[in-house]
Design a protein that fits this description.
The structure holds 2 protein chains of 2 kinds.
Chain A (H helix, E strand, L loop, with lengths): L4 E5 L9 H9 L5 E5 H4 L7 H9 L3 E7 L7 H10 L17 E7 L17 H4 L1 H9 L3 E2 L3 E3 L8 H20 L4 H6 L12
Parallel strand pairs in A: 1-2, 1-3, 3-4, 4-5, 4-6
Chain B lengths: L4 H21 L4 H12 L11 H22 L2 H6 L1 H25 L4 H12 L3 H11 L5 H27 L14 H33 L2 H21 L4 H13 L4 H26 L2 H6 L1 H25 L4 H10 L5 H12 L5 H33 L19 E4 L3 H12 L4 E5 L2 H9 L4 E3 L5 H6 L7 E4 L4 H14 L5 E5 L2 H9 L4 E4 L2 H14 L4 H27 L4 H19 L4 H6 L6 H5 L15
Parallel strand pairs in B: 1-2, 1-4, 2-3, 4-5, 5-6
The structure holds flavin mononucleotide (FMN).
């Protein structure tokens, strides 16, 4: 059974992106994967909840792809969550629309993997820092999977650097779509990689 | 010489010009001024007018007819509906109970029952003219007591109609003369209904199209003439069938109250009404029979004191029954204790209908006039002694939810392509606009869409008053003609200095001019849409949507700051040449800020997202990349 995958993409200044742009381009030709470019769809932040809810209803996997900004997502993605995940639709009495779906973050960070350790510069692991997303998914009855992460994004400069990450991202999206992923394992892991490509 | 029309006019106008301002200065109100003027020029004091006062009275009654027309114009059915509880309940109770109590007293004093009922109804009336202006002057109109008084007065105004219809039935049928001679009472009643229905139908199906046609001619005089023609024609018709002209014009007023020409009609009729009404009050004053009062001061004093005391008690009790708090109750009772100007009309009508004769009417007229003259004193007593004693909490002046005035928060001049958008957006947020427009076609279309819109020139002061500028929160000028817009702004600034003005500017120079005149917010008519189109163009040229939007926003705010700076300069009246130099400089600056090589546009404008700075940092691995301090 094929799952339908929705990439909610949030990058405020994609013109100057090196990593996210390539990751996204790599996913464009995948069948069964919908790309929803939030900053392009809502340049003035006027998110339309009904339209977004219909989109969510038509998919089984929600991938929040964005650069890691201040240990969180760019502003529009937060606005999107605030407006779209409504009481009685996403959670609360009668709020069952998202139940059983999968959700994960696909992020790029300036910091290295070592920095996101208890004894590293950032003091917390990414799983810890992403707990607001984890709990958001949980409250809506969704299964939250470990994040797909590209570390040290500022040091990746060209296609040669980013290529392995693009392949890994494609492999992950394909596995999600074709349901070949061990979901229990993916929910527990610190980060998600289905194919050794770049750095862990 | 004293018999010529010119001399008469001279005397009346003199009296009005001298007495009315003096009375107003003393806080006694214009009505009282006219009455006193009448007393002074009347046969008892100066004798400048004598027996012919009666003829003048006949002419002056047309003032009352006009007043009823205007009262009708102000009584929109929707306003009546909102105040229905106070009007019907409180007002109905006041009129019925007062009439019953006073009629009872008159019966006990040996007055025949027909006359007693008529006198009760007459005495139930209070003075709309005196009370409303006094309450407004004292800022008490919006208090709960003031609202109750307003509602009761409304009911009385309406009650005049059935009372006028009932009077012929109370009269002695066989002595009636003229057109209705020999007509049985039931037929008169039928005629009343038929005539009223006719007036309603005419108001609906004849008057409105006629005005629409007149509006296309755009001639002020023809409009005024038509307004007067309506009133005169109806008065004539009513007289022909033996009915009160006042009744007919009142009904016509109500019918036209919802029409888009209401403000225009009101403004046109107002000066005639004012003058003729003044004439009416003067002739009432002139007719006060001082020898009669001197002969029998006890009776007159008894009528005055008795009637006012009974009215006061009934009002107080009615207020209590309707749950008014103590200060509101006392305000209502004192404010409406006098007998009003309608009483004069009714007394005259009662005499004409032969319900009672002159011997009864003369002391009544005197008593009514005296009770009106006492009103200012009654208000002083209320203020000095009564209110302080009953007011527990001084913050009683709370506004009540049933608003007496039907005014919208926003007065909008111009409902063309620009104003329409303003009105629709405001309406979607729940704010109604009172619209003024000079184009009869626009007025017609907008009215059919269900909006409140009035035909009229927005630079006319009387029309601005009628549209409710005194109580509006905002005045929006949305007309396309720059010069006319400036003229409107000047008028509104001058007469309503506290009312903020938002205006549509034609171009930069007009913008500066408007800001200089004190317009709070001005917007160039094409600026917003041009910026939006350019933003979309940027997207079509390959820019990201959010990027184009941010760029446009930045450009716009820069542009608007520069504009404001130059407006301030313009207001200081610096050399215009200097201004043009600045203008060119600003344009260049705006262009430069858009160019890529300007670092503020490409990166500097959003330093928070600057990856390049982070990449060139010596230890990028040390996450997070320390984002540059704001
Ligand atoms: C405003 C801002 C905040 C950032 N905050 C973090 C952060 O908290 N942690 C981190 O590891 N990197 C942080 N970074 C670095 C970004 O994650 C990095 O620029 C991005 O992943 C690069 O991806 P891109 O090439 O697709 O833009 C931040 C960058 C910006 C511009």
């Amino acid at each position: 059974m094929a799952r339908r995958v929705l990439i909610l993409f949030a990058h405020p200044i994609l013109e100057r992106s090196r990593v996210n742009r390539r990751l996204l381009d790599g996913a464009r030709d995948l069948a069964g994967v919908t790309i929803h470019d939030l900053y392009e769809e809502y340049p003035t932040f006027a998110v339309e909840p009904a339209r977004e809810q219909a989109l969510l209803a038509a998919h089984d996997v929600v991938v929040l792809q964005h650069p890691f900004y201040w240990y969180s997502a760019p502003a529009l993605l937060k606005e999107w969550l605030d407006l779209v995940l409504q009481l009685g639709w996403a959670y609360g009495p009668g709020g069952t629309a998202l139940r059983g779906k999968l959700m994960l973050n696909a992020i790029t960070t300036g910091g290295s993997a070592e920095a996101y350790q208890p004894d590293g510069k950032n003091r917390f692991t990414l799983r810890e820092l992403l707990t607001p997303f984890d709990q958001t998914a949980h409250l809506c009855g969704m299964t939250y999977l470990a994040p797909f992460v590209v570390h040290g994004a500022l040091r990746l400069d060209d296609d040669g650097d980013v290529g392995p990450h693009v392949r890994a991202y494609r492999a992950l999206l394909t596995a999600l779509r074709d349901d070949t992923l061990d979901l229990a394992g993916a929910a527990r892991a610190p980060t998600l990689r289905v194919e050794a490509g770049g750095r862990p | 010489m004293t018999d010529t029309v010119l001399f008469q006019a001279f005397v009346y106008l003199c009296a009005a010009v001298v007495c009315v301002p003096v009375a107003k200065r003393l806080g006694l109100g214009a009505v009282l001024g006219y009455l006193v003027a009448g007393v002074l020029v009347g046969p008892n004091v100066l004798g400048a007018i004598g027996g012919e006062g009666k003829h003048v009275m006949h002419f002056a009654e047309f003032g009352v007819v006009l007043m009823l027309f205007v009262v009708g114009l102000e009584l929109q059915p929707s306003l009546l509906w909102r105040l229905r509880r106070s009007i019907l309940g409180l007002g109905g109770l006041q009129v019925a109970a007062t009439a019953a109590v006073i009629a009872g007293a008159a019966l006990a004093l040996g007055v025949p029952w027909r006359a007693a009922i008529a006198i009760g109804l007459i005495m139930a009336m209070s003075s709309t003219a005196i009370v409303l202006s006094t309450l407004a002057e004292r800022g008490q109109l919006k208090t709960s007591g003031g609202q109750a008084a307003f509602a009761v007065l409304l009911f009385q105004d309406i009650a005049v109609i059935p009372i006028l219809a009932v009077f012929p039935l109370l009269g002695v049928a066989e002595v009636t003369a003229g057109a209705e001679a020999g007509r049985p009472a039931w037929m008169t009643a039928l005629l009343v209904i038929g005539a009223v229905a006719g007036v309603v139908a005419a108001g609906r199906f004849v008057v409105r199209p006629a005005f629409q046609f007149l509006a296309t001619v755009r001639l002020r005089e023809s409009f005024i003439a038509a307004a007067l023609l309506i009133v005169v024609a109806i008065a004539l018709l009513m007289e022909q069938v033996g009915l009160s002209p006042a009744l007919g014009t009142f009904v016509a007023g109500v019918v036209l109250a919802e029409s888009e020409y209401r403000h225009e009609l009101e403004a046109d009729i107002e000066p005639f009404k004012g003058l003729l009404l003044g004439l009416f009050f003067i002739s009432v004053g002139a007719q006060i029979d001082f020898p009669l009062i001197a002969r029998d001061p006890g009776t007159i004093a008894g009528i005055v004191v008795g009637a006012m005391a009974l009215k006061l008690l009934v009002l107080w009790a009615a207020g209590r029954l309707f749950g008014l708090d103590r200060p509101a109750r006392w305000l209502l009772a004192f404010a409406l204790a006098q007998v009003g100007e309608f009483a004069f009309v009714l007394i005259k009508f009662g005499t004409d209908s032969k319900i009672f004769d002159g011997a009864v009417a003369a002391p009544l007229v005197a008593a009514v006039a005296i009770s009106m003259m006492l009103t200012p004193l009654v208000f002083v007593a209320l203020e000095r002694w009564v209110l302080p004693a009953v007011t527990v909490d001084t913050s009683d002046a709370r506004p009540q939810d049933a608003v007496a005035h039907d005014d919208a928060a926003v007065v909008l001049a111009g409902h063309g392509r620009f104003g329409q958008i303003v009105a629709r957006l405001l309406r979607s947020a729940g704010f109604r606009c009172t619209v003024l427009d000079l184009d009869p076609e626009i007025v017609d279309v907008v009215r059919r869409l269900g909006s409140k819109v009035y035909y009229g020139d927005a630079s006319r002061i009387d029309l601005l008053h009628a549209a409710g500028c005194a109580r509006a929160k905002l005045f929006v000028v949305a007309i396309d003609d720059a010069e006319q817009a400036t003229a409107i702004v000047k008028t509104v600034r001058e007469h309503f200095p506290g009312l903020p003005i938002f205006a549509r500017a034609r171009d930069r120079i007009h913008y500066y001019e408007l800001r200089k005149l004190g317009v709070a917010v001005a917007r160039r008519e094409l600026f917003g849409s041009a910026v939006e189109l350019a933003t979309e163009a940027l997207r079509a040229l390959g820019l990201r949507g959010h990027t184009a939007h941010r760029m446009a926003r930045r450009w716009r705010s820069h542009e608007e700051h520069a504009l404001e700076e130059m407006a301030a300069m313009w207001a200081r009246d610096e050399a215009r040449t200097n201004l043009f130099a600045r203008l060119r400089q600003a344009l260049e600056e705006a262009e430069r800020i858009m160019r890529d090589e300007d670092p503020r546009v490409a990166a500097g404008a959003d330093p928070g997202w600057d990856n390049e700075a982070a990449r060139s940092s010596r230890r990028p691995d040390e996450a997070p990349v320390e984002p540059p301090p704001p």
